[in-house]
Amino acid sequence: MEYNILYSALSRKDLNDIFDHIAYVLLEPSVAAAVVIRIEKAVRGLEYMPEKFRVYKVLSGCEVREVSESNYSIFYSIDKSDMTVRIHRIIYSGRDMDNQKI
Predict the structure, then answer these.
(1) Crossing angle for the helix pair 9-20 and 29-44, nearest 10 degrees?
(2) Which of 4, 10, 42, 86 is within CB 3.0–4.6 Å of 69 for a Cys-Cys bond?
């Protein structure tokens, strides 16, 4: 069965910030595009078997899972009732995750 993917506004902002940082701060626009493409491909891979990745933590009774791609952690939850994967955040893996809003 195929799940629908929904990005939160914050995860969309994360993706834009990742691109902007790599393209305009590190001055590597082609690398920025490639990283975003790899992250989006990893997210699309959650359409099938999204439960295959580990549970990062449980927040308010909801399992938040994590998948890594290109030094970034993608945090998401699964709603089986409407076959939806919700992308909550996309965060650089080198950050202190305990101090990040998921």
Answers:
(1) 150
(2) 42
Closest residue by Cα to residue 78 from 52, 42, 102, 41: 52
Query: Using CA atoms, how far apart are residues 80 and 82, in angstroms rounded to an integer?
Result: 5
Confidence of residue 78 (pLDDT cuts 50, 70, 90): very high
Phi, psi (5° rounding) for residue 61? 80, 5
Q: What is the pTM of this model?
A: 0.93
Domain limits, the chain: 4-95
Running DSSP on this structure, what letter comes out for residue 70? T
Q: CB of 79 within 8 A of CB of 86? A: yes
Residues forming a β-bridge with 4: 84
Tens-place pLDDT, residues 29-60: 999 999 999 999 999 999 999 999 999 999 88
- Per the DSSP assignment, residues forming a β-bridge with 85 are 5, 78
